[in-house]
Records
---
Amino acid sequence: MPIDAVPQWLNNGDNAWQMIASTLIGLQSMPGLVVLYGSIVKKKWAVNSAFMALYSFASSLIVWVLLGFQMAFGERLLPFWGKAGPALSQDYLVKRARIPATMQFYNNGTVETPMVEPFYPQATLVLFHFMYAAITLILLAGSVLGRMNIKAWMVFSPLWLLFSYTVGAFSLWGGGFLYHWGVIDYSGGYVIHLSSGIAGFTAAYWVGPRIKSDRERFSPNNVLLMIVGAGLLWLGWSGFNGGAPYAANITAPIAVLNTHICAATSLLMWTGLDVAFFGKPSVIGAIQGMMTGLVCITPAAGLVHAWAAVVMGLLSGSIPWFTMMILHKKSSLLQKVDDTLAVFHTHAIAGLLGGILTGILAVPELANIELPVPGTKGFAYGGSFTQVLKQIAAALFIIVWNIFVTTAILIAIGWFIPLRMPDDQLMIGDDAAHGEEAYALWGDGEKFDVMRHETIPHASRGNDDVQQQLNNIAARGVTIQL
């Protein structure tokens, strides 16, 4: 059957924007988080940390098109799960995009809200949501950097995507019970950030801590590259939140503007608190403040006023700061669990905060454009406090499911593959895990011994031999005490 290259239902603007948004989200992961993870850790963990992100991105795509997309956005199987199936055939990918379980009905069985059917091919929707799925796994990885067995991670990544991520995505976005109940999650405060924060914290508990020397000192190996990675993450959020409406409509630019306002406010708030309490601004702190602002606005981005984005930025720059800098030091549980990049604070706490604030600050006019349940509005605009309770209940579902599934997967993997690298390998880092190192420099704390026999040129062997020996020395790298 011939295929129409430009069918009547295709909106070129929507299709172009959705693919651009997908690319922006992809750049957040590749190279954004790859660069950020590779630079924010100690030098000896740069390769391992970057590779965990790289592997997750690749493995997620294959799992997504084989089974994951339809489990998250296909026909309903259970109230919280779609029917598994491939998204690979030409017939499936070129037809108009649709999310079949999103049709909303009145109690008498008549249609209240039609099925979500964006004006572009299914392939565009599959690609867009793959980018969301991949970055969720990469964010989760931040909790276990610096000690998780890479082989265990290679098994964990696809299993967690299938059995945890797809449940949250279907429940809140794909037409599951939380979607039809009227829970608001504009672009992933719960589906992506709360789930990655809780799953990451749970994984950190089961994998175990880094070695003592790494926990005590884990300074970035390249602060400038760390800022580059963070910058890619920030600007990529234009696609992250701007693509959520599935169209280049009126809420897309509102979502993008609110995203940047909240992130900037949160960064400034976090930095101000660092200066007030510690006497100097911290680059890592600024990045954490940026991150919490981006995460907090995500469930509300296209549904709130710009002034509300400022309020959310002030809260996201202070409440996660308090939980990380004050509460963390007083909690025995938080002290026990070695969450390497504090994903629990920057994503779980910030995502939960954003979800609750969305139930308060969602504007009725914008909510009616985007949400399946007509009349949905925030508590501040005359809505029932029930909306806030719905947001809390949905968060509890995501938290409990992620704790249960992450635990089950890791225990099962642990029967066959050690979750944590041995201590002797943890002392070495990348070279033990991959046989590779990030920089052509002498090892951490290791001195170059100029008196070693093989490094001393012998003139008695002739000029050619001496030159060859000097070349061999130069090829080994620069002598540096790190």
---
Amino acid sequence: PRLAALSFLRRLCALGKGQLTPGRGLTQGPQNPKKQGIFHIQEGKHVRDKLREIVGASTNWRDHVKAMEERKLLHSFLAKSQDGLPPRRMKDSYIEVLLPLGSEPELREKYLTVQNTVRFGRILEDLDSLGVLVCYMHNKIHSAKTSPLSIVTALVDKIDMCKKSLSPEQDIKFSGHVSWVGKTSMEVKMQMFQLHGDEFCPVLDATFVMVARDSENKGPAFVNPLIPESPEEEELFRQGELNKGRRIAFQLHIVTEKWPPNVLSTLIQYFRSRVLPPNAVWMENSKLKSLEICHPQERNIFNRIFGGFLMRKAYELAWATACSFGGSRPFVVAVDDIMFQKPVEVGSLLFLSSQVCFTQNNYIQVRVHSEVASLQEKTHTTTNVFHFTFMSEKEVPLVFPKTYGESMLYLDGQRHFNSMSGPATLRKDYFLEP
């Protein structure tokens, strides 16, 4: 089923007619008829400008209160039930976008690492913007100039890397569409490709979950239903239902319930022995921390901090943690289970804490915990937990917990590592750096 779904996604790439541009530096333009899948860029527009246009948000911070007040008038366009909304097809939300790294040196600078590779943190920002834009295409209201919906990222379910290297000197193409719809939530499938010769080759597959809220971003809002039109689309929709069930089951069962009590007790007692085996490191010695001041520059269209910015900062700290721990350059293999628990307000202090929680051979599993504090309050609130799987250039030490809490993080890290769907051995040049 997974291969059939991926095959369908690639065939769907050939059907996209409307090319829009998410993310910083992603540009909009008509397709070049001489080279299928490659776009000729004309009068490029950043996607965040496009998203501001869709929701009527102001580009000036000083006008943000007025702009949000005006959105209150859009409540009348919200559906009272999902039955009152016209169904949409998967191809209705399908869009392709181009990141012209090969032809725009100034843009390339934003994505360039010192090792002459592409910054994966920037790619995370672009995927987040693309997911939001895809959902607005699915829920487009032709009678309204401005959308009454506030669409935000709820979860990064999975990002899997493919076996292709990424060069900062070749164009990148993104594609995405809605693959499953509930009452107020949507699953978005996205792919990224890079140009090799005359062909765009797969780089990654991503699954995001987005939620729709009312015009003031205060309560849930109904979204257009989705009608599969082929066996391949029905399989994608079925996978979306299974993903929803898996997420609900995970929320209902804490990690201790996934392990037999005798196994869990034995592991914890073993960890508490406080005898460090050879070629091992205590978990408490694998931490890095950072602090970010959340300036208005990093706000989203609803004047909260942009989720892609949070992912980029968390990823870069995780990469540094894996690099420090392993003693060599790490390469990202997978990202999964990033849940946005609470929005981050502009002006907040963002505390990020990164820790290696599981290792095996060349692999490093890193968990990043994000919490915020306002300038007026001293209390901290968790906003996100991020999970990243890296591969190091050489074999890394084992990591061992000392406490019960660290033991739980270890078991959870092992679960995330085991969920990685990539191959067991991957060349380092297949991956990306921060």
---
Amino acid sequence: MEYSLFCHHFYALSISPVKKKLGLLFIMLLLWVYMLYSCVGYCATMPPSLVVDNSNNRAKETDFLGKYAEAESGRPDLVMSKLLSRPQSSWTDVESDYDEPTVRRAPRDFSKDEVDADRAEEWDDGRRVSPLSSFSNGSGSKKLPQAIIIGVKKGGTRALLEFLRVHPDIRAVGAEPHFFDRNYDNGLDWYRDLMPKTLEGQITMEKTPSYFVTREAPARIYAMSRDTKLIVVVRDPVTRAISDYTQTLSKKPDIPTFESLTFKNRTTGLIDTSWSAIQIGIYAKHLDNWLQFFPMSQILFVSGERLISDPAGELGRVQDFLGLKRIITDKHFYFNQTKGFPCLKKAEGSSKPHCLGKTKGRTHPNIDPEVVQRLRDFYRPFNMKFYQMTGHNFGWD
């Protein structure tokens, strides 16, 4: 009898309104803590709104560069002017590096407003970082990148970065910092603060495709760290130029035709190399600039074509280059027939398949085959030189 009364009172107490309210409050508290951790981790990857004072850092950097100049070239004034010159427009740099006396620049350069297009690319379902990744973002420390994807525009750099982010030992900032071409005066402290936090053994990465065609970028990256590993995604320069034009056309439908932009004179067939869509594909010209500061062993060239046909194979090469275990394999990919390129079965922070956003895989406009052939003839000697410099035949006609 006493046992029955005890059970009755205990049961009545357990379902009392007070207990119910306390239980609900406890559940709400758990949810609030969960949301807080998620928010902290996600916000940790966002760029800061303030520019820090980096005068001391710049002074140290200048001292290092002066010593480097004296030791390496005997002309500190020349090297210092190269390394610490004020940033210029990436496409202006490329154009000014050509020997042609009558270069048409501003009127022909329709890509200046497009160089950030990849920054805004979202994955189809608008994925966000998982709670576990968000929590890890709150620990560790921010470091300058040990590896950078420096090019090229419309080569497949966004796909490569997203594929690499699957690797647990790679942490990468999503947006393109454009530090070494546009924001260099902000200083290394500002740059470091853009990076995600990493733990011991993890690699910090970023990608800004315009670095490859920016004249000052090699010296500036060398000044940050001569051990930086550089990755360049290259693609058939003709199809790359068409893709570049297509991206611009999608945002500016009133621009001239691809054919009219390609030639200075259609009758003579003289190619207009002042147009950035053409310039970028002269890979050998830009590579010469990088080899003045970095050995070929620190530069990996990824095939944009093989990144589509064999993503796991190309990712294997990249993981080897970065000194990482081959974790990203065939099991991570499936081919999307609609878009025409591979997608991730399970992207970072998600258990669902993911593809690049709707702006990827655009339908290209119809280009006159004669124009395409003349472009191939124009690029052929540059491609041959590029093959010789890199030791790789990428199979472009």
---
Amino acid sequence: MVGSVSRNCTDQGWSIPFPQYHIACSVDDDIPETEQAYFTTVKLIYTVGYGTSLASLSIAVLILLLFRRLHCARNFIHIQLFTTFILKAAAVFIKDTTLFSGEDTDHCNLSTFYCKAAVVFCHYCAMTNFFWLLAEALFLNSLLLSSFYHSRRCLWGYGLLGWGVPVLFIMPWMVSRVYFEDTECWDINDNSPYWWFIKGPIVVSIGVNFMLFLNIIRILMQKLNPRLIQFNNSSQYRRLTKSTLLLIPLFGSHYMVFNFLPDYFNVTMRLCVELCVGSFQGLVVAVLYCFLNQEVQKELQVRWLKWQENTYGVVSPGPKGSQMDTPF
């Protein structure tokens, strides 16, 4: 419940505010030492996780952008997803710096434009991350169901889904907080009906992603049946199966554990899964879908051999080229 402080206008002037601020404040700063130690450990873990994810994803994006031969529809969507992970990590650091700059921060009186902007930016980045995970799942489904050309118009559609749709939900949440629930830094959403402007779309996207994951598994099981496919396609589908099975579990599948449960349900475990595990999600995606990608490794090897040839005059046999999917 949000507290309120009032004063009465009397013959002698304004009365003393009642109740006192520390009583009316809805923020409980008296945290037991055991919980405080746990929260400190969680913050340390997700700080390391987001930091390593931020560094690895930045390198991955540069690699996919610099090498023209890696430009394709699949990697275009990967770049957008990597960017959302980068923004999400940066938003968490900005939010922590703004809201928890010191141990003596008075959260009852902390209600500035900057802290509210940091919270809004953090929520927007989190929503774009979920919606680009959804775009990845939709793209893989379309890739398995058909081999049609993914035109720029199709990529624009994914872009509007990933970057534009979250704005449609962030804006009404901001308006509702300004006019109906302008308390603290908008970072407390307990029992707030307006929180569903943000939580609702995220819950739906996670559920749809899980359904798409099951659909992809079903399609792959059919296509990998040797009696239903031609021999020359089996290696392609087996390779796609490997990459798909590695990527789809990262589409927020671990969020399914608490997706349809109330926010107050098992907060300790929720923080561990959503913050600690989720902070390393970007690192895992960058390693699996950039650094360990065969096309990326071959392109880096080609560049390395060309550099050796130009510098030392050493000529070595280069790797065989691989066929990319539709370029953008």
